[in-house]
Amino acid sequence: MNKTRLEAFSDGVLAIIITIMVLELKTPESNDWESVKHIFPVLAGYLLSFVFIGIYWGNHHHLLHTVKKVNSRIIWSNLNLLFWLSLIPFATRWIGENDFDKISVAVYATLLSVSGLAYYILQQSIVVHHHFQDKMKDALKKQSQKGIISLFAYLTSIATAFIYPIISEIIFVGVAIMWWCPIKILSRQWRNKNKKTALKTECGF
Amino acid sequence: MNKTRLEAFSDGVLAIIITIMVLELKTPESNDWESVKHIFPVLAGYLLSFVFIGIYWGNHHHLLHTVKKVNSRIIWSNLNLLFWLSLIPFATRWIGENDFDKISVAVYATLLSVSGLAYYILQQSIVVHHHFQDKMKDALKKQSQKGIISLFAYLTSIATAFIYPIISEIIFVGVAIMWWCPIKILSRQWRNKNKKTALKTECGF
Amino acid sequence: MNKTRLEAFSDGVLAIIITIMVLELKTPESNDWESVKHIFPVLAGYLLSFVFIGIYWGNHHHLLHTVKKVNSRIIWSNLNLLFWLSLIPFATRWIGENDFDKISVAVYATLLSVSGLAYYILQQSIVVHHHFQDKMKDALKKQSQKGIISLFAYLTSIATAFIYPIISEIIFVGVAIMWWCPIKILSRQWRNKNKKTALKTECGF
Amino acid sequence: MNKTRLEAFSDGVLAIIITIMVLELKTPESNDWESVKHIFPVLAGYLLSFVFIGIYWGNHHHLLHTVKKVNSRIIWSNLNLLFWLSLIPFATRWIGENDFDKISVAVYATLLSVSGLAYYILQQSIVVHHHFQDKMKDALKKQSQKGIISLFAYLTSIATAFIYPIISEIIFVGVAIMWWCPIKILSRQWRNKNKKTALKTECGF
Q1: What is the pLDDT of residue A83?
Q2: What does the pLDDT read at residue A186?
Q3: Residue A170 CB contacts under 8 Å (≥ 6 apart), including other chains
Q4: Chains in contact with chain D (at least 3 beta-carbon pairs closer than 8 A)
């Protein structure tokens, strides 16, 4: 099995997922301010999902970069991940239609949990099938740790959604930042105000 | 005619088919449990179609891998297959809107039959145009046998849809499993409980 | 300007055009025969458009294969063609919603005319920018002749749409067949019943 | 990080954006002239957006061509640009549904401004990360100047939208022409009627 075609197919699916979400955005019924202001939460949800898919695309790219041999298990783990990610436009629309209410935020949080788990499974499928060097193993282990932290954060956000949905949303943004810029940099940043350059380089500001 | 572009176009179409189905998923009208539980059969239909397209993508990839020369007949057989597969999101929506009732399941089963036939035709078009080695011929013959078994299973499922749609659905899942893991492994597994490793490797668990 | 990216972008757009049409197909309101039979004309329209886009994809591929240098004019002629082809799903939906009535068929015929013209312009842009060998020139000249015949056929079909839409539809199918299999073969076939092999090879039956 | 995959993903997203807009086009309710004539402004909006995305695709291609090394900042600047461009189908639908009224034109103009700014940021991210030769620097500087002129034109068009939306639309067309053909050629053309060849070559007529 050819790795290139696996990458091309995944890229195609991710590009479609990230773009078709815009079809779900409803235009306001009338053009007065009352109607127009309702699109801001919907836009915020769209932005959040866009960033999540963007992060998955970036990490998925790095992960597949390590792959040398493809087997059935990797193909199916990959399709499994794409399946859950493909539901994100659906969950985003649900959130938008219900103005971030409890149930819709809990569904969104559940979907993020399952997607995170699917990503973890894909990574494990790749690790089992390869003999990586120590440096690579360390890098992948750190990724796994991040994945487990995210999973716990998402599971917490399912629970908080039923009490204060806003807390779940803060958790979503927090996880996005954690994946965006390596956490080490962030914690170093917290202690040392001079390391702004590192933050700039790693997080792309 | 360039094989790469044929692959790229097919991959693009399959990636779009597998992803746009999510646009067909309707969010529940209200957020109480009564409404929410209606999305589970719809999700099940989406999952089934996702797996079928995924299997077609994998097999299509392997089949095109054997192609060395492309002629008109292969191009049109391929477009013919893509045409029927492109109707799967439509049939999936139909099933979802009618909660797996008789007519909609029969339509879905018919579509799977015709898609299976189209895949068989594509394979024949490729075989006629090439001089394969014996090993490859055997592999393709086994694929053909699987294709014919699937076709009979699908035709049966059209009939059963009018009596008990649930039987048709079981047939769909059965055919998916047959394509997912090679049948030899499965039958061996049946006789010998120790061959779990083979099952694991081939089916990607 | 890189030819590969021009091809990739065009392939992407054509793959999306050919696939999103399925989103326009409406499922029947109820599952009795009266409702279900209404989808057949819609499906016929979908099939027609699918075949037209498929033919454009095949010919576009062959045409771009001849390109060695890309300039602004070729890029814009190509975008012009893609623009008109992107309207085909819209016209197909229109035809489907109005059961092939006069206006909708006339709109569809107009769109096919303009697309045919845009293809002709793209071919001219490529010819002007290259110094082809005589053999290639001849092949492109034959393509141009076919293009001009199609254009006249389409213009006729706009007129006939207002009198008998069915005549326009027959013209559409006729043009599709003309592009599908080279005409020379067809006319030879007409005279000589033994040349079935040639027909088989060229038209891909 | 691999530049090829960045290009492929961007191309995919742009191809989808440019094509899914057609799903937003509503067919007329009845087939009399009164209803049909309402689709012309909608089609005009679609054409405008198609041309803008086409211009972005062309320029984006040239810009990424200069990239040799990819870092986080370039990836995120690119995703930022794609995010704003992905909203263009949404704004186009809004314009179409409100027949180019004040609010919808102002929203469209705002979106074009932000997209222009995002493109400028992407270019800066690339410039900072590379050591270009003088010739390339000059070319990119000219692009920046064009970008700043566009930005001022768009900001003006937001203001004029509230007074005469038609002025904003003229500005949109003007900016499109400015990006389409290099301005130098246009101004030379103004002075010298003989330079038609240059115009022809550069603008692709």
Answers
A1: 95
A2: 54
A3: none
A4: A, C
Residues of chain B found within 8 Å of residue C205, distances taken between Cβ atoms: 73
CA distances from C149 to B26, C167, C178, C193 (A): 46, 17, 10, 26
CB contact under 8 A, C75 and D204: yes
A30 CB near a chain B CB, below 8 Å?
A: no
A20 CA to centre of own chain:
17
Phi, psi of A177 (to 5 degrees): -65, -40
First-to-last CA distance in chain B? Answer: 39
Binary contact (C12, D7; C-beta < 8 A): no
> Lowest mean pLDDT: which of A51-60, D28-37, D117-126, D186-195?
D186-195
CA-nearest residue of chain D to A204?
A: D73
Which residues of D fall within a CB distance of 8 Å from A12? 12
Position C129 pLDDT exceeds 90: no
Give the residue from D4, D71, D73 with the most A CB atoms within 10 Å of its CB, the best one to mutate. Answer: D73
Nearest Cβ partner for B19 among A2, A13, A102? A13
Nearest to B59 by CA among B143, B138, B142, B175: B143
- Give C48's pLDDT tier (boundaries 50, 70, 90): very high
B5, B20, B86 ranked by CB distance to C61: nearest: B5
With tokens 């990360």, the residue in question is D129
Quickly list DSSP for C21-69: GGGGPPPPSSSSHHHHTTHHHHHHHHHHHHHHHHHHHHHHHHHHHT--S
Contacts of B135 (CB under 8 A, 6+ apart): none
Residue that the structure tokens 């080490």 belong to: A184
| Interface contact B22-A72, CB threshold 8 A | no
CB B129 within 8 A of CB B138: no
Residues in D touching A51 (Cβ below 8 Å): 79
C71-95 pLDDT, tens per residue?
778 888 999 999 999 999 999 998 8
Higher pLDDT, D201 or B66: B66
Looking at chain C from residue 95 to 124, which residues have their Cβ under 8 Å from any Cβ of chain B? none
pLDDT at residue C140, as a whole number: 81
Token pair 């999902």 is at which residue? A49
D interface test, pick of C4, C5, C101 with most D CB neighbours within 10 Å = C5
pLDDT-wise least confident of A130-139, C81-90, D21-30? A130-139
Q: Are A92 and A21 in contact (CB under 8 A)?
A: yes
Instruction: Kindly list the partner chains of chain C, i.e. chains with 3 or more CB atom pairs below 8 Å.
Output: B, D
Q: Per-residue pLDDT for B117 more than 90?
A: yes
Candidate from B161-165, C33-37, D1-5 with smallest mean pLDDT: D1-5
User: Is D13 in Cβ contact with A19 (below 8 Å)?
Assistant: yes
In chain B, % of residues over pLDDT 90? 32
Smallest CA-to-CA distance from B152 within B127, B128, B178 is with: B178
